[in-house]
Amino acid sequence: MFFKKNKAMNDNTKDNKKSMNENADNMAHNDEVDEALSNVLNADDSRVGEALSEGNDEEIEKLEAAVQEQKDKYLRLMAEFDNYKRRVAKEKEELRLTGGKDIVQSLLVVLDDIDRAGKQLGSTTDVTVLREGVSLIFNKLRAVMQQKGLRAMEAVNEEFNPDLHEAITEIPAPNEGMIGKVIDMVEPGYYLNDRLIRHAKVVVGK
Question: What does the pLDDT look like over 59-69, one tens digit per residue?
Fold first, then answer.
């Protein structure tokens, strides 16, 4: 009755289609620019041909200078565009390599606490102290993740929503009001900056 919608895959498909459309638009725009420049240059070349046939040396020189100026502008434009593409490619590569730097740096303090807790495990047998240490580490981790925009999904007692929830099983509802609603959450779902990044795995009443 309930099926998981693979929203992440759909989002990736939409992103890929959007990227393909943007690339097609850019290529079409570049073709239009090339065509416009070609028309200008061809028009000037045509005028040069007319001037040659009429033997007007002064007009020929002016037109040749104008043609050369247009060609120089075109070459500079293409050079600038090539530089722009290289710069964008470099920025994308840097973002791919260091995009997670901020979150990793934030998690280093939690990693330090884990290292210290690991050392205490071999030097103490006080379960209460160990439990408090582990609890502090968990709380710090949650705080860091919340600061970065991570938010847990509230699913229990909510209407089952295949866009947000993955139904792993159905059980008899304790009352009629819970039919079609989430009775238990086996694995929490999460939002990052209000965007769904993981579906909640839930048990649904039937």
Answer: 778 888 888 88
- The residues near 140 (Cβ < 8 Å, ≥ 6 apart) are 109, 110, 113
> Which residues partner with 169 through β-bridges?
203
- pLDDT in the model for residue 81: 92
pLDDT at 126: 81
Q: Apex CA 104: angle with CA 99 and CA 105, to 5°?
A: 110
Nearest to 147 by CA among 189, 105, 176, 175: 105
Predicted TM-score (pTM) of the model is 0.54
pLDDT of residue 35: 56
Q: Which residues of the chain have pLDDT under 70?
A: 1-56
- Structural contact between residues 171 and 183, judged by C-beta atoms closer than 8 angstroms: yes
Q: How far is CA 157 from CA 16, 165, 203, in A?
A: 36, 12, 10
Contact 183, 206 (CB under 8 A): no
Quick one: 18 exposed, middle or buried, by C-beta within 10 A (0-12, 13-18, 19+)? exposed
Amino acid at position 193, single letter: N
Find the helix or strand (DSSP H, E) in which 93 lies.
helix 57-98
Integer Cα distance of 93 and 12 in angstroms: 19
